[in-house]
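Quick one, probably user error.
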């Protein structure tokens, strides 16, 4: 609940220091009444101007058109995703990524074998090549996991 005793309005601080007389209180209430009337009249005039200008109707029509556009876009997205599913694009893509990962792993095994052979000749080269292989393998695995998860999520959400 709001604490009205801590109001930052300076006029309230003055009231606490110098209590209003009955006449001043009446004058303040009359001022408030006058302000209410003035603001009510302004609000009525503003609403009449808005109505007469056609801006309310224009705004309502713009909202209606926007809602139709959202509806149509949602339908288009739905149709496109169904078509992707029907044509197997997502599944095929996930399969291609999986095959790419297997090929990359085979390549990594081959490079490791070469590294072992080269290591017998030059131990420093072996470490550099091994570090590179490990880095490539890790990054390839991470990218593949993300793509496969994304593809599975897209297939699962339909």
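Nope, works fine. Designed sequence:
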């Amino acid at each position: 609940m709001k604490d009205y005793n801590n109001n930052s309005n300076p006029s309230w601080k003055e009231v606490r220091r110098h209590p209003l007389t009955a006449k001043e209180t009446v004058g303040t209430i009359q001022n408030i009444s006058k302000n209410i009337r003035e603001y009510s009249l302004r609000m009525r005039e503003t609403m009449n101007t808005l109505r007469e200008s056609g801006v309310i109707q224009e705004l309502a029509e713009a909202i209606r058109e926007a809602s139709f556009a959202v509806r149509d876009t949602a339908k288009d997205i739905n149709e496109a995703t169904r078509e992707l599913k029907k044509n197997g694009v997502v599944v095929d893509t996930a399969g291609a990524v999986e095959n790419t990962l297997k090929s990359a792993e085979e390549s990594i095994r081959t490079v490791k074998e070469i590294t072992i052979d080269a290591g017998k000749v030059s131990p420093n080269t072996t470490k550099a090549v091994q570090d590179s292989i490990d880095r490539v393998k890790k990054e390839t695995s991470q990218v593949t996991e993300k793509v496969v998860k994304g593809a599975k999520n897209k297939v699962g959400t339909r």
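The radius of gyration is 37 Å.
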